[in-house]
Design goal:
Layout (H helix, E strand, L loop, with lengths): L2 H19 L6 H5 L2 H21 L2 H17 L4 H13 L1 H6 L6 H60 L3 E6 L4 E4 L1 H6 L12 H4 L5 H11 L4 E9 L5 E13 L6 E11 L1 H29 L3 H14 L5 E6 L6 E8 L6 E4 L10 H10 L3 E3 L11 H6 L4 E9 L2 E10 L7 H32 L9 H18 L2 E9 L2 H8 L1 H18 L5 E6 L2 E9 L2 H16 L3 E3 L2 E3 L3 E8 L6 H18 L3 E3 L2 H23 L2 E10 L5 E11 L5 E2 L1 H11 L2 H21 L7 E4 L2 H5 L3 H9 L9 E6 H4 L3 H13 L3 E7 L6 H6 L4 E4 L1 H7 L3 H16 L3 E5 L4 H9 L4 E3 L9 H10 L1
Parallel strand pairs: 17-18, 20-22, 22-23, 23-24, 24-25, 25-26, 26-27
Antiparallel strand pairs: 1-2, 1-5, 3-4, 4-5, 6-7, 6-11, 7-8, 9-10, 10-11, 12-14, 12-17, 13-14, 15-16, 19-20, 19-27, 20-21
Length: 881
């Protein structure tokens, strides 16, 4: 574009500027400044414009124009005023005189327009800034208005939320001061119309627990806490249950967000919890009722049913104690007691004296007199109770006494004890009363059923089991005995000439006699056995566990002697009664009840026919028992007649071949030519208990012989005596040893004891004490038949023994097999390691003796050394040595 056209363009711009800049801007410069300042600015502008047009120094002049425009803008001079100044400069005479408007006129006008444009540039920039600022302010104002509206709506919603929230709500600041509270908060925490806003939570609730305060502090640190059921102790001592949620609330957003405090949502659930507990208690009572009704259906025994009632009440009803008693209030017999175990809540059943029941007789009497339940709902403050302190010590805080009735008459009490005070309310009491009625109904049913069963299975005269019950029990015992390999005996008694008693004295005397017979037999018969009145003058006894026929015969003889030997005094008459009896044995005489009973009847008839007091069903059994009883009778007299004699078997030391001990062995000299060995009569002595006096006699005899040999100038070795299992078990074992030991001079080791290993291990702890007592008396102890029992090595180290006797079975096998030799060698090594001596018994040949010497056995005993010999022969043997 040429300069002319450029000037026209600038001119066009200049003519349009007043229109573009023409805004309703207030002329601040002309209003607030002196005219001289405006005139000065106007002159400066004109001179600058003239200089710009004259000199053509574009850059400096344009900068000066821009500076003038900036000063005008900062002086709040309007665009119109600046335009007027510019027009005035162009119209001034000086301008026309100084400049020539010929061909360059358009160019100069263009240059003037550039100058004005440069001066107006700050105005344009300021205008755009103002517009942007105003736009921003408007936007900010609108945003603030919206936020204010939103905040106001949020606060309103918060207030409505807090006001109408079903939970109690409180908003607190960081200092735990109340900001907002809901009406429910005031109601739940009993604040009334008190103004708590601004107050500290701890001022309002000074009783706040320490652990709660710690929870609040954690929530102020950003945690959230939720609790379902928390106990809250109020200032007045009452207890409430509270459910809560605690959240922190925040101020600011994003990085500027911080915790402003906490908001608590709480609900007092005391009433709901009480209702839940009540429902749970009622459900427990209904569960108890259901379980007890089920027990009533299946249990027909009163004692068993009462135990089940108490157990169910404790385990399912969670009562601390339940007990049942029958009788009058002043003489109540406790039937069953169940107590809650502290360990796992299960029931512990007790009976009788072990029950340790606190019987509140006055309360029981009132319940039974009124035939209504009596409740003590607060034991601590109930003045009726005698054992208040004891109840509280056991953890009982309430109890109820429920009367149990039979045919509408109170006969007993069901007592339930709870750990909670005020446990029994009206509804629960109603259910418990119904439960007591159910139990009473069951008791009536059991009583009637017992009466029916009694009439069906018991003899009305003697009150003993009748034939049917006897047969039922006999069959059960047969089945059990068949499985366990036991022997059962059936004894039938028949009173001789009983019809004469009825005919002579009358039937009432006969009935009274039968009653007395039944009472006497019942005292003599064990509870494991069964006594029955079969009918007429016949009684039956079942012995459920006997060893053999002789034992059955002994039992029968004891019964006859205890029952029928003493005179019967009936109706003023003295009656001497004799009986006949028959015996049958299971399984030999019958495999079922009918056969066994029939064979006992046959044996009874044989005894009646033959005039015998009793007979077994099998003839050979009678002969065997007769021989056995004859042998027993002869043994009873053998000690009195001096028929027992001691024999002695020497023990030889393997190193010196000298006699270092004697074993005293019992023999029975029935006649001059007949010498009975111990195996034939020792078992009978043990069964009959005669081994006790015989055992004491053999010890005394051994001491007497020893002292006799000593008096003859001989040097007898110690004498060992075998101790029977019956002797060792007897409670006076140690006392009998002391009586015998008193006959031994102090310090003399005359008597040693040999005890079989299996016997020793029966009751190891007691036997250890007994053997220590024997050791204290100077007696040595040897374990006989070692290796045949089940002794433990740990017990062997504790037993106060001195010698081990290797059983002869191992000695026999020693030179027959390597295992036999290894066993003997091991026993010898074991004994020596325990510092015990070793005796090998049953040494019958030289080969065995040599081998035992090589194995370093200490002593030998057997036929190789010497057979058992009499005391006279021992004198000769000792004299040679």
């Amino acid at each position: 574009m040429d300069r002319r056209k450029q000037g026209i363009h600038k001119r066009s711009q200049l003519t349009q500027l007043p229109l573009l800049r023409n805004r309703p801007t207030h002329n601040i410069a002309r209003d607030n400044s002196d005219d001289s300042e405006f005139t000065e600015f106007q002159n400066e502008y004109r001179m600058a414009l003239m200089e710009y047009l004259k000199n053509g120094s574009d850059e400096a002049s344009l900068l000066h124009a821009y500076e003038l425009g900036r000063r005008a803008a900062t002086s709040q001079l309007s665009v119109l005023s600046l335009n007027e100044i510019h027009q005035s400069a162009l119209m001034s005479g000086e301008f026309h005189r100084s400049l020539s408007f010929d061909d360059n006129g358009a160019y100069l006008l263009g240059k003037a327009a550039d100058f004005l444009g440069q001066a107006l540039a700050p105005f344009d920039m300021m205008h755009r800034g103002y517009v942007e600022t105003i736009s921003r302010l408007r936007t900010l104002n609108e945003t603030l208005h919206q936020q204010s509206q939103a905040l106001r709506l949020s606060e309103e919603r918060m207030r409505m939320f807090i006001k109408h929230n079903p939970a109690a709500v409180a908003m607190l600041d960081r200092d735990m001061r109340y900001v907002l509270v809901s009406p429910r908060w005031r109601i739940d925490y009993r604040l009334g119309e008190r103004d708590i806003l601004g107050l500290s939570h701890y001022e309002v609730f000074p009783e706040t627990p320490r652990e709660w305060r710690e929870i609040y502090q954690r929530c102020l640190g950003g945690e959230v806490d939720k609790r379902d059921e928390v106990p809250f102790q109020r200032a007045d001592g009452s207890l409430d249950w509270v459910r809560w949620e605690i959240h922190p609330w925040y101020t600011g957003e994003g990085e500027e967000s911080r915790i402003g405090g906490i908001i608590m949502f709480t609900e007092v659930v005391t009433e709901r919890k009480n209702q839940e507990r009540k429902i749970a208690r009622l459900s427990r009572i209904q569960s108890i009722t259901s379980a007890i009704n089920a027990a009533i259906i299946r249990i027909n025994d009163r004692e068993e049913l009462m135990e089940e009632v108490c157990r169910v009440a404790v385990e399912q009803g969670r009562f601390r104690r339940a007990w049942v008693g029958f009788g009058k209030a002043d003489a109540l017999a406790i039937s069953a007691v169940a107590s809650q175990s502290p360990a796992n809540g299960s029931s512990v059943i007790a009976r009788g004296e072990a029950s340790n029941v606190l019987v509140e007789r006055s309360v029981i009497a009132r319940a039974m007199q009124c035939n209504k339940p009596v409740v003590c709902n607060d034991i601590e403050h109930d003045r009726r109770l005698r054992y208040k302190r004891e109840f509280l010590e056991r953890g009982y805080h309430s109890l109820v006494m429920l009367p149990l009735c039979e045919s509408g008459r109170p006969i007993g009490i069901l007592c339930l004890c709870s750990a909670e005070a005020r446990f029994f309310d009206r509804e629960e009491l109603r259910l418990l009363s119904e439960l007591a009625d159910d139990i009473s109904y069951a008791l009536n049913h059991i009583v009637k059923e017992e009466q029916i069963n009694y009439l069906a299975y018991y003899d009305a005269l003697t009150s003993l089991p009748n034939r049917d019950l006897f047969f039922d029990r006999l069959q059960r015992q047969i089945e059990a005995a068949r499985h366990e390999g036991r022997t059962i005996a059936v004894l039938l008694f028949d009173i001789e000439r009983f019809s004469n008693v009825n005919d002579t004295f009358g039937r009432h005397i006969g009935d009274a006699l039968l009653k007395q017979v039944g009472v006497r037999l019942q005292r003599l018969v064990s509870s494991h056995d069964t006594l029955a009145h079969i009918g007429g003058d016949v009684f039956a006894i079942m012995l459920a566990d006997i060893k053999d026929a002789p034992e059955a015969a002994h039992a029968l003889e004891r019964l006859i002697a205890g029952c029928f030997t003493p005179v019967f005094e009936v109706g003023g008459y003295e009656l001497y009664v004799a009986v006949k009896a028959g015996i049958s044995l299971f399984p030999g005489d019958g495999a079922d009840r009918d056969t066994l009973y029939k064979n006992a009847e046959i044996a009874l008839k044989k005894a009646q026919k033959n005039g015998e007091t009793y007979l077994f069903y099998r003839r050979e059994m009678n002969a065997s028992v007769a021989r056995r009883l004859t042998l027993e009778n002869r043994l009873y007299r053998a000690l009195e007649r001096g028929e027992f004699v001691p024999y002695y078997q020497p023990k030889i030391h393997t190193g010196t071949d000298r006699v270092v001990g004697l074993e005293c062995l019992l023999r029975w000299q029935q006649s001059e030519s007949e010498l009975v060995l111990p195996s034939a009569f020792i078992p009978i002595l043990e069964e009959t208990g005669m081994i006790l006096p015989v055992g004491a006699w053999i010890m005394e005899k051994a001491i007497s012989d020893y002292q006799g040999w000593l008096a003859q100038g001989l040097s007898p070795p110690p004498i060992a005596v075998n101790v029977s299992v019956v002797q060792l078990r007897h409670r006076d074992f140690v006392a009998s040893l002391r009586r015998i030991g008193d006959k031994i001079p102090s310090g003399d080791g005359i008597l040693d004891l040999e005890i079989t290993e299996s016997i020793l291990m029966e009751n190891i702890e007691q036997n250890i004490e007994k053997l220590r007592a024997a050791k204290d008396m100077g007696m040595k102890i040897a374990i006989d038949d070692f290796g045949t029992g089940y002794s433990s090595l740990s017990y062997l180290t504790r037993l106060p023994v001195d010698l081990l006797k290797i059983d002869r079975s191992f000695v026999i096998e020693m030179n027959r097999s390597p295992s036999g030799l290894a066993i003997v060698s091991s026993v010898i090594s074991l004994a020596h390691s325990l510092e015990l001596g070793v005796i090998a018994e049953g040494v019958d040949d030289e080969e065995q003796a040599k081998l035992l010497k090589l194995l370093r056995c200490d002593q030998l005993q057997g036929f190789y050394c010497s057979k058992p010999v009499s005391g006279v022969q021992i004198e000769t043997m000792l004299g040679k040595h």
